[in-house]
Amino acid sequence: MTRHETQEWKALVEVQNQRASKGNTQDILTITGLMSDKAFLAHVGRYCPEFKESVPTDNYEQMRSYLLGSPSVHFWVKDAIQALDQKDAVDVVHDLTLLRELYTLRIAAGINCRKTGR
Questions:
Q1: Contact at 8 Å (CB) between 72 and 46?
Q2: CA distance 77 to 66
Q3: What is the pLDDT of residue 77?
Q4: Count of CB atoms situated within 10 Å of the CB of 40
Q5: Radius of gyration for the alpha carbons in the chain, expressed in angstroms and rounded
Q6: For residue range 10-51, what is the model confidence (pLDDT) as tens digits?
Q7: In the chain, which ranges are continuous DSSP H helix?
């Protein structure tokens, strides 16, 4: 069976079609041609909750290890985890709460992405 015959692929195609019908032109299919099977499954999990791999959420070390090793976690998040490990955990939670509020406002304002040239 090829990747294109799997339930995961069919679910991703369905998500792509739903997004396109709402005017979202971002292609989430083509990039999968460059992905390993593990990365493909993680990609599908981002868009299709029924295929999302379970994340250990009751143990800091297990969850940290999972996030740092998962291909579905962006590199900048991994960098942030490692950098924030050097900070006071209470300060980190406070500052992340501020960032969450800021980016919730950004979404509400309809600001999707600011290109910085980097």
A1: yes
A2: 12
A3: 93
A4: 20
A5: 17
A6: 999 999 999 999 998 889 999 888 888 878 888 888 888 888
A7: 7-21, 37-47, 60-69, 75-84, 89-108
